[in-house]
Design a protein that fits this description.
- It contains 11 helices and 15 strands.
- By secondary structure, it is α/β, with parallel strands linked by helices.
- Strands 6, 7, 8, 9, 10, 11, 12 and 15 form an 8-stranded parallel sheet that branches. Strands 1-2-3-4-5 form a 5-stranded antiparallel sheet.
- Bound molecules: zinc ion.
Length: 363
């Protein structure tokens, strides 16, 4: 998988996932990494963290007090990073070093853990975020909180819908419009009128083969037929098809080399939270996180994962882009998203001032 470039590489343990796409049997893939019991590995559980006690910090040592002040100011130069704990909970941390003020030549290292899951909205553009600072030398831990101002920046979503659910997608054009959301539809088969309609609404269209076969199980001849035979017709009719999604996220390196000649981005699929910047996306291969109904049986689990993922990409700053994929838009489809969940995704993104990217936006 030499084309994979992540700005975050998250290495998890052992087993492969049972993760497939609409209408398929289960498919094994190393990039889909669940918990040991087979459940998806990244459903956020509320982190056990003590409530903020403002009184605590007043007793802190001078260095600790200075660190807390820096963290509260939330300056952009604090280098925050994403960390997945053993339960795959998404966390944001930062490491800070402070030169000693009382003893010349000493320095102490501190770790900051932010509690984004429980951040409390103060108004339309501010949240109160609790954090814990640990002095790594002494083990001293202090809790405090900061005010996080949401600003317009380049953080955003790369939201995609796969397979052949054109009628469901078209019924929700108004919903996308309501939230100013532009998305990418990865269609199968031959050109149909949906593609021009989607483009006219400001969306993008990518390709997802003719018959949705597992490409690792077919001959080279069938591979080329499935991936490229219909593409010219789309392009002759003004549908650029800049991107390609592998059915079930399954591919081999030679396939990616071949498809790179025709598609600017090839897209895989998994359950792991991954964040990219535009340079990593332009490199040509990305893996997109599934948010299908099947993966999140409980409403609270779905809302928790969306909240923590979206807050995380916004909070770590810079150009953090999160690829997400689902299929049908339906209350009953396993491989699809319930309409009210779709609105939750779009509303949460808008509240956090996240951008909506299309695959074609990077070229
Ligand atoms: Zn598919």
């Amino acid at each position: 998988m030499k084309h994979i470039v992540y700005i975050l590489v998250i290495v998890l343990t052992s087993s492969v996932a049972v993760l497939s796409c609409a209408g398929s049997r289960s498919v094994l893939r190393s990039e889909t990494l669940p918990n040991a019991d087979g459940t998806p590995g990244d459903q956020a559980k509320p982190a056990a963290r003590p409530p903020v006690d403002p009184a605590e910090s007043t007793e802190a040592l001078p260095l600790m007090r200075a660190i807390i002040q820096r963290v509260k100011q939330n300056a952009p130069e604090i280098n925050k990073y994403v960390f997945l704990d053993e339960q795959s909970n998404i966390m944001v941390k930062a490491d800070l070093t402070m030169e000693g003020t009382d003893t010349v030549g000493t320095s102490e290292d501190f770790e900051v853990v932010y509690d984004l899951q429980h951040a409390a909205p103060l108004d339309k553009s501010r949240l109160q975020v609790g954090f814990a600072v640990t002095n790594k030398q002494t083990g001293d831990i202090r809790h405090d909180s900061l005010q996080w101002n949401l600003t317009d920046d380049a953080a955003g979503l790369l939201l995609a819908f796969d397979d052949n659910y054109q009628s469901a997608w078209e019924r929700h054009f108004e919903v996308f419009e309501k939230y100013g959301a532009r998305v990418t539809f990865f269609v199968q088969g031959d050109l149909d009128p949906f593609c021009a309609a989607a483009l006219a609404r400001g969306h993008d269209v990518g390709y997802h083969t003719i018959h949705h076969l597992n490409l690792t199980q077919v001959s080279r001849e069938v591979f080329f037929e499935e991936t490229l035979s219909a593409v010219d017709t789309f392009r002759q009719h003004g549908i650029p098809l800049l991107s390609f999604a592998y059915p079930y996220g399954l591919w081999e390196p030679w396939m990616d080399e071949e498809l790179a000649k025709s598609f600017k981005i090839r897209r895989g699929y998994g359950v792991t939270f991954r964040v990219y910047d535009s340079a990593a996306i332009r490199h040509g291969y990305i893996s997109s996180k599934a948010i299908d109904n099947l993966l999140y049986k409980q409403e609270a689990a779905f809302e928790a994962i969306i909240t923590i993922m979206f807050r995380t990409i916004k909070f770590i700053g810079g150009e953090s882009i999160l690829p997400l994929t689902t299929h049908d838009i339906s209350d009953t489809a396993d491989w699809g998203i319930m309409p009210h969940r779709l609105e939750y995704v779009l509303q949460t993104a808008r509240d956090l001032k996240l951008r909506f990217y299309r695959y074609g936006d990077f070229f």
